[in-house]
Design brief:
globular; 22 helices
Length: 533
């Protein structure tokens, strides 16, 4: 589930070797900061659609989703993946970081301006593509938002590449908090789509000002003079990734355009809820992936193949510990999840949501595959060819599904093509890393985690059936109770299968001991009363 891209991050380094412990700790700490920051940001971002589905009609909510679909598309496609060149050039050209960032800033501003001018100059284009004439009236506001958002969208990647994961997490949180606060305020006070669009523009201005301040403070020797030799080198690195990113956008976003064009804003609103991207999935994938890319680049430069294999297996293991149980739990409680979050008006979204959930377990291999291909430029031609070939069945399947079948058919095409892509790229990445058949044993913990999620899911489904038979439980209560049952069963099965390492068991025990001490201390203070201290 999708751009854009949560585990027990501390378990990333399952075993360490001399001279590498520091890198592992840095990796885990960096990923942890990003996960925490993005998780907190997601808590604010999810409040916006949950509020709007209650304030807007179904059709108005569909138009809102269309506006931000265009904005999100611009954020994915227009930057050309150019900001990711910082991960490659910072460790290789440490004395020219300022020039690298200057080039990134210039490219982002230029492509953002190009996208904004296109939307403003041809306002009928987005309206025709999405089959909603209302969108033409928002073209000037949308064009300005594209310029500001795209022009400043590189900040997170530059901060991570600069070794400031903690700051990057705070940036992500601050930007999302600003966006959510402005959008919620606009929705509550004015309750119109136009004010929501204006709120996006205001956020873009604030974000741009902050980005300029960061660049000036961290790269004080930056001069407004383009280093064309370095620019060409960055373009040579980034353009194949940009093309691959375009193909990734086709896989992750183009189905929204097919459905909207075929069925209009009201039906698209139901589809958008069904294909709802759980923020926590993207958070885990992006946070771990961003840090793993940097680590894989370092290991590749030192030709430490075995360490890359170890990192790959640990990343899959930790992501599996999160993705498998989430997938199983939502398969069981998805109907209640949709009703509680988006109201009964969107209950028709459940079949779409059920199919879309399959993307969660498919996400566990994505960070490693992306990191391997980005660290090995010689492998990029294969990466690009594979995604180019997969675009054909994707577009063909979506055209047939939206013309002759239901909304479920469209999301099923997306899931099927994603599965095929994961298999193709996974096999190639394993070959690049030098994984052999005996190395597959390293993934046994991921298999055990999947088994534990399956056992907990089936058992919870039976409990849910018993509770529904009584017919007295509200959706929220049913969701909470089933989640609690699933959690207990999943953790118990994981322990029975002996998945946690002794180090992880000890870490959990120490954490629980500290928590117990804090609770005991608070209880003693409360019992003593105001005069007992």
């Amino acid at each position: 589930m999708s751009p854009t891209k949560p585990q027990a991050v501390q378990s990333l380094p399952r075993a360490s070797s001399p001279g590498r412990a520091g890198g592992d700790v840095s990796l885990a700490t960096s990923a942890l900061w990003l996960v925490v920051g993005k998780t907190a940001a997601a808590m604010f971002s999810i409040a916006v659609p949950l509020l709007l589905v209650r304030l807007l009609t179904v059709r108005e909510f569909g138009v809102y989703k269309q506006l931000f679909l265009i904005l999100d598309t611009a954020l994915v496609i227009l930057p050309l993946g150019f900001s990711l060149s910082a991960f490659y050039f910072f460790p290789r050209e440490p004395a020219r970081k300022a020039q690298v960032v200057g080039n990134i800033l210039l490219i982002h501003v230029l492509v953002g301006a190009l996208g904004g001018v296109l939307v403003v100059g041809v306002p009928a284009l987005p309206a025709a593509i999405l089959n909603t004439p209302d969108l033409a009236a928002y073209a000037p506001i949308l064009g300005l938002a594209i310029l500001l958002w795209v022009g400043s969208s590189f900040i997170e990647f530059v901060a991570i590449a600069h070794g400031e994961a903690r700051l990057a997490a705070l940036i992500v949180l601050g930007i999302q908090l600003l966006r959510s606060a402005l959008l919620v305020a606009a929705a509550v006070v004015f309750g119109s789509l136009r004010t929501l669009a204006y709120a996006a523009v205001i956020c873009g201005f604030v974000q741009s000002a902050f980005v300029l301040g960061y660049v000036r403070s961290r790269f004080s020797d930056l001069r407004w003079r383009v280093d064309w030799h370095l620019m060409r080198a960055q373009l040579r690195y980034a353009l194949p990734l940009a093309y691959a990113g375009l193909l990734w956008w086709l896989q992750g976003f183009v189905h929204h355009y097919f459905v909207s064009n075929r069925f209009g804003a009201a039906v698209y609103a139901v589809y958008a809820v069904g294909s709802f991207q759980l923020p926590i999935v993207g958070i885990m994938q992006e946070s771990v992936g961003s840090v793993v890319i940097r680590r894989i680049n370092e290991l590749r430069r030192r030709n430490e193949t075995q360490e890359m294999i170890r990192l790959a297996t640990q990343t899959v293991r930790t992501l599996a510990a999160f993705a498998f149980p989430l997938y199983a739990l939502l398969l069981v409680t998805g109907r209640e999840f949709i009703t509680v979050l988006f109201t009964q008006r969107y209950s028709a979204s459940w079949p779409i949501f059920a199919v879309n959930l399959t993307l969660i377990p498919l996400s566990i291999s994505a960070p490693i595959c992306d990191a391997v291909f980005r660290a090995c430029p010689e492998e990029l031609p294969f990466f690009v060819k594979a995604r180019t070939a997969l675009a054909v069945p994707l577009l063909t399947g979506l055209w047939i599904a939206t013309a002759r079948f239901s909304l479920v058919g469209a999301v099923a095409v997306v899931v099927g093509v994603t599965l095929l892509e994961r298999l193709v790229l996974g096999v190639r990445a394993a070959h690049v890393l030098g994984l052999s058949w005996p190395d597959l044993g390293r993934f046994r913990d991921a298999a055990r985690l999947g088994g534990a999620a399956g056992v907990a899911g089936v058992s919870t489904h039976l409990v849910r059936g018993i509770l529904l038979a009584n017919g007295l439980m509200a959706p929220l209560a049913l969701l909470v109770l089933c989640s609690a049952v699933f959690t207990v069963l999943y953790l118990g099965t994981v322990l029975l299968l002996r998945v946690p390492t002794p180090e992880e068991r000890n870490a959990v025990h120490q954490w629980l001991t500290r928590l117990q001490q804090v609770v005991s201390w608070r209880s003693a203070v409360d019992a003593a009363g105001p005069g007992g201290v």
